[in-house]
Amino acid sequence: MQTEAKQAFSISDELANQIDQVLAAHDHDATQIVGILLEVQDLIPQQYVPEAVAFYIAEKLPIKVSIIYDCLTFYSSLSDKPRAKYPVEICRSVVCRVNDSDSLLDTLKKILNIEVGEVTYDGRFMIEEVPCFGACDVAPAIRINGKVYGHLDTPEKVRSVLSSLM
Amino acid sequence: MSSEVRFITKNFGKYNPDSIDSYISIGGFSALKKAVKMDGEDIASVIAAAKVKGRGGAAYDMGRKWSQARAVKGEHKLVICNADEGETCTFKDRELIKNDPFNLIEGMIIGAYTVQARDGYIYMREEYRHLRPRLLSAIKQAEEKGFLGDNILGVKGFNFRLHLYSGAGAYVCGEGTALIRSIEGKAGRPRMKPPFIKVSGAFALPTCINNVESFSIVPHLLLDDSNVYTNCGNGESIGTKLVSVGGNVRKPGVYEVPFGTTVREIIFGLAEGIPGGRRLRLVQFGGASGKVSDERILDTPYTYDDLKAAGVDVGTGSLLVIDDRTSVIDFLRYTQAFFSHESCGQCTPCREGNLHMKLLLDKLAAGEAHPCDIEKMKKIANIMTLTSLCGLGEAAQNALLSAMKIFPEVFAVGGAH
C-alpha cells in the first residue's frame, strides 16, 4: 500500500506551484531548509515529503538532496514516509503518562481500530507516539496537524475530537 | 494563599499581542528608547547588578555573557533567542511568546544594541507552530515602525534584522551548537567546543544565545526605577522566576514567583496541591534532565543556592509533581524513554548508554535486577555524565542518580539470585 503510494506520487502542476511559493517565501535560502520542508509537508495530503518532492526542492534551491534526506531522517517532525491526513500525535512523556495517557492511548487504538504506527483503512488517521510538545498544563494531550487537544481524560472527549475532523 | 508577582509577566493581558500600536500604548519600546541613550556596557551592568541568570537551564550570568559578547571583535555578530523549549513540563516560554511577543522582540533589539549584533534569530520549536503567525506579524510590524531595520530610532549604524526559524521536533536542538547547525540548514547534531559560540556560532559568526525568558526580563529591568525586581529574592537569587508546574496538581500552569518562595507554596499554594487526597511521591525540578526529590524539599526556598544545597537545581524552572500512583521506577522508565528517543546518536556514551539504561530499568521494574545491575547502572550513568559530547548525554541520568540518593530502598535489590 505504502510502496504503491510512493510509486504513484507525481508532482501536479498545482503542487509544483505551491512548492515554488514556499521556496519564494523563504527567499530560496537553503539555510531555511527545515522550515521549507515543514511547510511543504503540510501541502501533501499524507503529511510527508515524497522522494519526487525532495528531488524537486533539491533542484530548485539548489541544495544537495543528501542534505534534505539528512534533515528528513533526523528531525522527527519531518517524514519521508506516507503518514495520514490526520496523524494523531499522542504525548508519551512523563507529564502526560502520570495523567493517564495510557488510557488515552488505549481509547485511541479502540476507536480507530489501529495500533501505534498504523494507518486507518481510509488513510485518514494514524497514531504516533511523540515526546513532550509542551501541553503539560492540559495533560493528557494529543496534537493533530499542529493543533493541541488537551484534557482528554474520557473516551467521549476523544471521540468528539476525532468526530470534529470527519 | 497567593505569592505570585507580576514583573516579567506584567504585560500579560494588558495589550493585544497582535498589535504593535496596542503594545506602544502601554509603554512598549520605551525601554529600547532608554537603552539607545546608554552605553552597551552599562546595559550589561544593569543586568549583572540584578544578578540575572540565564533562564534556559544553565543559569549562566547573563550580564557577564552580554559583556563578553560585546567584547568579541567582529563586523557581523548575531543574537539568537532559544525558543526550543523542549524539556518536559516546561512551557513558560510558550506563554511569553503567546502573551507578550513584542516584549521579547524589544528585549532582543536591546540585546543586539548591547552586543552590537546585526542579525537576530528566534529559533522556535515546531511544536509551537501555532505561535508562528503571531511572531511573524510582530516582526513585520516592528519593521514597519522602524524598530527593526537600519538606523533604528535614529541611531546611526544601529542596524538589526530579525529572522524566525523553526525547529522540527528535535530536543537536542535546544543545545547551543545543535541549534546553530539547525539554523544553518543542517541536521541538529551538536559539535565539540571550542570554538565557543560567542566566538564562532551560527555561520561561524560571533553569536550570543539567550532564552526567551532571559530576553523578556531586559526591557522591564531597564525601566525598573523603583527596584521592584531587585527587591525580590536574596543573595545570588534576585528577582522573580517563571515556574511551570505540571503533573498531578489541581492547577497546572505557569506562575511568576519571587525567588525565596517555598516549594510548598508553589505546589500547594499556587498550583493548589495534589487532587484526590493522594500523597506526593516525588518532584522533578528543571525538566527531563533535572534532578528529583521528595516531600523533604517542600519547605526549601526556591532559590539557586537553597535548591542546590537540597540536591536539585532550578534548571528550566519546571516543577513536575508526581503522586503515589506512579512508582519511582516507572517515573524513571518514562524519563529514560524520552532520552532514548531524543539522543541524536552521534556519540557512543549517549547512544549506547541510554539504550542500556533502558534495559536495566526494565529489568529492575520486572523484579529481576541483581545488585551488580544497580552497580552497572551507576557506572554507565557516570560514564555518560563524564564523557558525552553534549549536555543531553551529560544530564540524561540526573533523574536516576538523584533518585538513587533519595529513594535508596527502590534500588536495594536482593543478592541471592
TrEMBL record, chain A:
Pfam short name (any one) = 2Fe-2S_thioredx
The protein's required cofactors:
[2Fe-2S] cluster
Q: Name one GO molecular function term.
A: 2 iron, 2 sulfur cluster binding
**SUPFAM superfamilies according to UniProt:** Thioredoxin-like
| Family from the record | Belongs to the complex I 24 kDa subunit family.
Q: Does the keyword Iron-sulfur apply?
A: yes
User: Do you know which InterPro entries this protein is assigned to?
Assistant: NADP_DH_HndA-like, NuoE-like, NuoE_dom, NuoE_N, Thioredoxin-like_sf
Protein name as annotated: NADH-quinone oxidoreductase subunit E
Free-text cofactor note: Binds 1 [2Fe-2S] cluster.
Judging by the UniProt lineage, the source's domain of life is Bacteria
Q: Which UniProt keywords apply?
A: 2Fe-2S, Iron, Iron-sulfur, Metal-binding
In this chain, [2Fe-2S] cluster is annotated as bound at: 91, 96, 132, 136
TrEMBL record, chain B:
Instruction: Cite the entry's keywords alphabetically.
Output: 4Fe-4S, Iron, Iron-sulfur, Metal-binding
Question: A GO molecular-function term, please?
Answer: metal ion binding
**Pfam families this protein is in?**
Complex1_51K, NADH_4Fe-4S, SLBB
* Keyword 4Fe-4S found: yes
The record ties this protein, via PROSITE patterns, to: COMPLEX1_51K_2
Q: Which domain of life is it from?
A: Bacteria
Q: Where is the NADH-ubiquinone oxidoreductase 51kDa subunit iron-sulphur binding domain?
A: 329-374
Q: Does the keyword Iron apply?
A: yes
InterPro entries membership: NADH-UbQ_OxRdtase_51kDa_CS, Nuo51_FMN-bd, Nuo51_FMN-bd_sf, Nuop51_4Fe4S-bd, Nuop51_4Fe4S-bd_sf, Soluble_ligand-bd
Protein family per UniProt: Belongs to the complex I 51 kDa subunit family.
Q: What is this protein called?
A: NADH-quinone oxidoreductase subunit F
